[in-house]
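Lab notebook, bench 4. The sequencing result for the construct came back, and we need a structural model before the next group meeting so we can plan mutations. Quick request posted to the team channel:

Model the 3D structure of this chain.
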Amino acid sequence: MIYNFQYRLNLTTEQKLVLNDWLRICQYWYNRQLGERFDWWEQNRNYIDRCALLCHLPELKNKPEFYEQKKQLPIIKQDLVSVGWSGELLDFNVVPSQTLQEVCKRVELSFKRYLAGDSNGKRSGKPRFKNTARFRSMIFEGAKLNSCSVGGKWLYLSLPKIGIINVRHHRPLPDGAVLKQTQVIKKSDGWYINLRLQDDSVLKDTASHIPDQRSPASPAFARRGTGDFKPNIAPSWNNSLGMDAVLHEDDYLAVSEGFKLPSLKSFRKSQNKLAKISKRKSFKKKGSKSRRKLAQREAKLHQQIARARKDHAYNTAHALLKTGKKVFFHEKLYHRWIKSKRIKS
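Done. Here's the predicted structure in token form:
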């Protein structure tokens, strides 16, 4: 089983500067690959239903795919890369090679979803060029990652080319979990890290403790203290629970047992404050220090709204699962209501 744990980083000033430089290099590398794909696609495609009056005469070159673009990295690392519009000099040697290869993979996946679609045939929109605010994460993977916990309060990770970083260990790691990949994310209130863990013992324990339907319940449940746990419960009037959305008043969910769950309305409560900050920011000069400060306040407010929604969703799910009953709802109907303007925020 593979799952992710997110922790907050406590970085030094030097480490923050290094990660910001790496993000800038990865952002440039992402936009450069995306531009090459768009140029090749525009210059080498032809319309099937008409003849174009104007056509390109491009230089013959291979289609820029994942392996073709990844081969450019050794050549780019031979010298500093000059950014045309800003005059920056970027050194690709300071960034771990696997991190740059993950950027190539990210471009490949986004462009593939745009052209071919996912497994269900649903196509995504045209990939965007990333600015500083949109490109916020980097992936590190490899055998050089190791972890140790000191005192249970802090977790120390060793990342390539940056050394030991300090992680706020608010949630203990499961025993037997193996660290496979790390993702460093820059948010409005600081730096975070996602630890991708693999634990094969979870599936083995689950399979060994599921009772056989043709025999009585396995005694393994009694040893683990799970009580009368039954994974396959036949629904009845006594152990079933129905819920439906409420589109009026201050409630957003009604349960068949006769009570309603209140609506959070995190966005509507912060809407006026958010509008004032956004209006003040729009009058400031682009690139100024005052505009960056207001943009930071706006981003933190959006983050508070998102976190409040996430916490409210978990609390609601916990309240429903705490009843120990089977829950029924209209799945297809909710998918339609999500796109509606009547959904409460």
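The mean pLDDT is 83.
Will bring this to the meeting.
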